[in-house]
Amino acid sequence: MKNIKEILVCGGEGGSVTLIKENETFFYRTDETTFLELTVEFTRENLINTSTVFSSVEKAIDDLVENYNVFSLFPEKLDPKYKTVLQNAYFKNRTENKKKNNECLSEEWLVKLFQIDSVYKKFVNLNIEQIIKASKNVLENYKEDNYTTSYPYFVGFLENSLLDIEKYVVGTNMVYGWMPTILNLDLSDKRQIERVLEKLNKKEKLSMKDFEILKRSINNSIVGMSKFLHFVDPYTYPILDRKIYKFITGKEYATGIDQSITYVAY
Question: Among 218, 199, 202, which residue's Cα sits nearest to residue 263?
Fold first, then answer.
């Protein structure tokens, strides 16, 4: 008895593509029968095609993404069980196809693939009036301390020079002088770190994967990563720590703060 299940269904102007699991194998089917409304040149059989059968969902998705730009289509259905595999395929596709690196996922993909809508809800209390009021309060109670004294030197050191692995090591350790924890810097993924540093040197937009690479390296901490990035480019990357998170969300506990998607939403 066949056990057939739809894993992913995407639609577009020309039709749809469906990723299917049948027992322990995977394949995808394209349906372009909408063209029958425009021309009699094709038959229904010509416009419905099935891929080869794959032994793993990873292979099926890789082939699907390679042949069809599914991330530009509308995601009608996505089985949550295969979300991580699709996320990996998305990052892999962006890395291997540089021409697509500047493309942004649609709101529908962000919701289904990364639940970014639920992350945005954490920041519902943020508004410009709150920020202005809080800023005035800070200025009125301003006192010079280690943070205010060292801030311009930190920014000057990292913002005004090209980043390399040496500057990265010095800079991250410098950042942790602002923090109560000891830095455990992981340089095992040195090539990927250098790739991200090069993007920062070129003022290129960082992807979710780039944030993940830096976060894993810097104590696996979004707080540490955000402070390093802020000193590199203070007008692009704001600091996010537990005090800021509490101010924005009104929540006592910063649950989820150490997820890259939280920083992207912020």
Answer: 218
Q: Distance between CA 80 and CA 45 in Å, rounded?
A: 31
- Domain borders along the chain are 4-114, 121-265
At CB < 8 A and 24+ separation, what contacts does 242-249 make?
Answer: 247/130, 247/134, 248/122, 248/123, 248/125, 248/126, 249/122, 249/123, 249/124, 249/125
Give yes or no for a contact between 27 and 53, defined as CB atoms under 8 angstroms apart: yes
In whole angstroms, what is the distance from residue 155 CA to residue 150 CA? 9
Answer whether 226's CB lies under 8 Å from 239's CB.
Answer: yes
Q: Is the pTM higher than 0.70? A: no
| 65: Cβ contacts below 8 Å, ≥ 6 apart | 71, 89, 90, 92, 93
pLDDT digits (tens, 9 = 90+) for 27-39: 999 988 766 565 6
In the chain, the amino acid numbered 231 is: F
CB-count exposure of residue 29 (10 Å: 0-12, 13-18, 19+): middle
| Residues 228, 169 contacting (CB under 8 angstroms) | no
* The pair of three-digit structure tokens given for residue 266, joined into one six-digit string: 């912020």
